[in-house]
Amino acid sequence: MSEEQQTPTNNAGAAKTSSPDRPWLFRTYAGHSTAATSNALYKNNLSKGQTGLSVAFDLPTQTGYDSDHVLSRGEVGKVGVPISHLGDMETLFHDIPLDQMNTSMTINATAPWLLALYIACAEKQGVPREKLSGTTQNDLIKEYLSRGTYIYPPQQSMRLITDVISFTYNEVPKWNPMNVCSYHLQEAGATPVQELAYALATAISVLDSVKESGQVPDADFSRVVGRISFFVNAGVRFVTELCKMRAFTRLWDEICRERYGVEEEKYRRFRYGVQVNSLGLTEQQPENNVYRILLEMLAVVLSKDARARAVQLPAWNEAMGLPRTWDQQWSLRMQQIVAFESDILEYGDIFNGSTEIENKVQSLMGEAREELGRIEEMGGAIAAVESSYMKGKLVESAAKRFRDIESGELTVIGVNKNTETEPSPLTTGEDDGFLKADPEAEAEQLKRLNQWRDLRDDTAVSNALAELKRAAQESQNIMESSIACAHAGVTTGEWSQTLRDIFGEFRAPTGVGQASSTQNDQHSLLKIQSDLNHLSDKIGRRAKMLVGKPGLDGHSNGAEQIAVRAKEAGFEVVYEGIRLTPAQIVNAALEEGVHVVGLSILSGSHLPLVEEIMSRMSKAGLSDIPVVVGGIIPPEDAEALKKIGVSAVYTPKNYDLTSILEDITKILSESIKTAA
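Structure (tokenized):
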């Protein structure tokens, strides 16, 4: 049964039910280093009672590059598994029967390709398409707003989403072809109302596109609506998150009935999976994250009328680095204890009849309808992306969250309150409490990729790519030609480049220019502003900072907030968005005449990328410009970065942006003195 296929029916009371509800699918989001390593990890997790797979792909795979592309350097196998071709996919699922597995793939821009590889892999196993169950995330709208793993312009991305949906509802009927993903919206700063409105606006835009494409007969449209699923976030504000999920279920039912005329109740069900909030996990006192994760999970499993049908939990140590096998087991056991030791599955909805809950649900629904109306007036989600409306609102909301933590208005235990602590025995072992990626994994992947290219039939590859190109140019559904490409041996980069040549590429608005400061911000920045005015007088022009995102990491919250606060402090800021090569960053530093460079990297690729940037800056005569780096960076890596000339390293524990800017201003002042 697919992950969100069964949704419990309404139960007006809290009486014990005669037949307990089925537990949700237990998942862990996993994959790293190589396909073989990840395959062993999956088998291990399944042996411990995990009931579904959730595949994490590395950034080159997510953004449509082969492992040997210049932008892939340092990123291969870091935040997920590299999948460059069908051979990698077969290795990933070796001895895992796909007709018995429910597989969720967190993939968006290259969703048609990864689904094609999965189908081809199943066919090599002898498994027909109609027996496959699982999900491709396939939500490009939120990629322009949050994670940044988009490739093509919005309209072309919508066309690819539409092709996948139109193909699967007949060919792979148990597959969820799109997971409308509000998870990353919350990570990017979305309030509960924004998460509701932006996710539902995305779903509306997608369904409208499918309807307009003419690929689905009107008689089948309700069935297509019934295959749309959602992937949401649950934060630590337990009551609000629970009410948000109840609001989601009602609003979706309303949209399905009123906008699309879906009469069958089963096709109007709000089918959703969850990963609870990784953004709220702290590097400080990381053991506290266990309680946060448990509270967040309860928000989506306690309310039977809005219970998640698949849950994956982060590990307690993900603010420090990759979780180890034991850490993932701990998160899995948390799910199993709640499902099998507690009695929550034995009762109807325990919140029905609560005035407080109902009032909060109605409030969220009302505000979400208003925001949906504003987006509708703009022309829908695509227009709201292209105008930077939604991105600007998210940057603004994220800025408020940062300010509230800094001021103490938003309490985070161990960060801005109750910071006294004993040393944690969980982090004092030889591995420092987290998994370090295999440094040889990238070289091994490149070797396998070259071997794959040497052994395949180049004529078959050329013919398959020509057919893909023809389908794309003639506005035909690209899925069958993509599956043929998979069988022919085409690589991820070749598939993506073929479509890049036709559709072009896109750089989304940053939203940084729309965030506004408060009087409190201005007051806290007075000293920095005074110091910067003094420095600017010395320099002879306004002090200029380059904020750079090298590599493929698209998580831009930190970079955006530093850029916003630096502008408020009085810096002239150069921020060109995500996905830049070291050469592009150094060239920008040279052309813009900047005085300090700030680099943000959250994917774990900081060492090779920063080393290359420092080397290029030296060759360009920019070695006197201070460089600071922020990201999820272990202490030993921070020391290594300082040894090659990095002036300062900031990690998630450095949450006070004003303090960071004070530090950067001092570093700049010292560099100016030295230069003088």
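The first strand starts at residue 25 and ends at 27. Residues 1-13 have pLDDT under 50 and may be disordered.
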